[in-house]
Amino acid sequence: MIMPDLEKIAAQLESSNSKDRLLALTSLREVDPEDAVPLIKKVLNDEILPVRSMAVFALGIKPTAECFPLLIDLLAGDPDYGIRADAAGALGYLNDIRAFEHLTRAFYEDDNWLVRFSAAVSLGNLQDIRAKELLMSALDSDEVILQQAAIAALGEIKAVEAVEKILTFADSEDWLIRQRLAEALGKLETEKSISALKFLAKDAHPQVSEAARLSLVVLGQDSYPSSVTLRVLK
């Protein structure tokens, strides 16, 4: 495999053309974190939002000791809600339990739904059961997207105690909520979960029914997965 030219990438990051800078960030995928992060930092304050956004995301997948404090500062104080949301998402990729308090604070205190959504998703990624109360409260939100995130995250943290409440979404008009529910129930094995999954396996929306069927297979409740489920399992 040909290794990326770090000098070339550094030069691209100094280019006046934002497309060059985006391409440079993309090129960092094959670069070791210790070499990549100093280059990423060059465009963390870029004037073009998509460049900044990609740089923030890159901090989450190129973890070094510097990444955590950089992302915390962005989450807490960046004036752009999109960047705060990106920082919250990147913290989930870092999988650093120290992020728990910061993500919790962002969920409760940030006034933007996208930041709160990203914080909820990342709390699920951390798989810390302490997030259960917060995620349960998110189920009562007026924002459907927050409900989606909370259902998925409750599955990730294996909050079996939440099954009763998330089952109230089995008849939701939003098919994405029903899909998230089907996916989450596959990680929350109870008799009621299995019963609900059998119901969702007959859902009119194919992505919901396939998600339910896959969860049933994972739970050992379906010996005859569909062709789509077989492809997923592979």
Give an overview in words.
The chain is mostly helical and 234 residues long. Helices cover 66% and strands 0% of the residues. The protein is elongated and about 60 Å long.
Present the secondary structure layout:
Layout: H1 6-13, H2 18-27, H3 33-40, H4 49-61, H5 67-77, H6 81-94, H7 99-109, H8 113-126, H9 132-138, H10 144-156, H11 163-166, H12 175-185, H13 191-200, H14 206-218, H15 227-233
Helix pairs in contact: 1-2, 2-4, 4-6, 5-6, 5-7, 6-8, 7-8, 8-10, 9-10, 10-12, 12-14, 13-14, 14-15
Features of this protein?
234 residues, mainly alpha, 15 helices
* Distance between the first and last residues' Cα: 27 Å
Estimated helix fraction: 55-70%
Low-confidence segments, given as residue ranges, are none
Reading the helices and strands in chain order gives: HHHHHHHHHHHHHHH
* Rg calc: 20 Å
Oligomeric category: single chain
Task: Average the pLDDT over all residues and give the rounded result.
Answer: 92
Number of distinct helices: 15
Q: What is the strand content?
A: under 5%
Structural class: mainly alpha
Strand tally is: 0
**Shape descriptor:** elongated
Largest sheet descriptor:
none
InterPro entries: ARM-like, ARM-type_fold, PBS_lyase_HEAT
GO molecular function: oxidoreductase activity
Organism: Waterburya agarophytonicola KI4
Keywords: Antenna complex, Phycobilisome
